[in-house]
């Protein structure tokens, strides 16, 4: 019984990575927009950094969700 409770606690802790992804997305796009408004000529050069940051942040949420599912149903 204690092992099952530990699985659920571990899955909940693993899901904290999804909260970090949600917070990070707002910062990524907000900072890009602020920089693009200050210097519009440099915005196109930073767009690839924006897409890369979005992909890494989104992957963090997906990986943490996958770890939570693995902890709940496989272990």
UniProtKB/TrEMBL annotation:
Main location per the UniProt record: membrane
Q: What is this protein called?
A: ATP synthase subunit c
List the InterPro entries: ATP_synth_F0_csu, ATP_synth_F0_csu_sf, ATPase_proteolipid_c-like_dom, F/V-ATP_Csub_sf
Q: Where in the cell is it found?
A: Cell membrane; Membrane
Q: Where is the V-ATPase proteolipid subunit C-like domain?
A: 9-71
Record-annotated site: Reversibly protonated during proton transport? 58
Ordered alphabetically, the record's keywords are:
ATP synthesis, Cell membrane, CF(0), Hydrogen ion transport, Ion transport, Lipid-binding, Membrane, Transmembrane, Transmembrane helix, Transport
Membrane topology is:
Multi-pass membrane protein
**A single GO molecular function term of this UniProt record:** lipid binding
Family stated for the protein in its record: Belongs to the ATPase C chain family.
Q: Which cellular component terms (GO) are annotated to the entry? A: plasma membrane; proton-transporting ATP synthase complex; proton-transporting two-sector ATPase complex, proton-transporting domain
> rRNA-binding: present as a keyword of the record?
no
Q: Which residues cross the membrane?
A: 9-30, 50-74
Q: What does this protein do?
A: Key component of the F(0) channel; it plays a direct role in translocation across the membrane. A homomeric c-ring of between 10-14 subunits forms the central stalk rotor element with the F(1) delta and epsilon subunits.
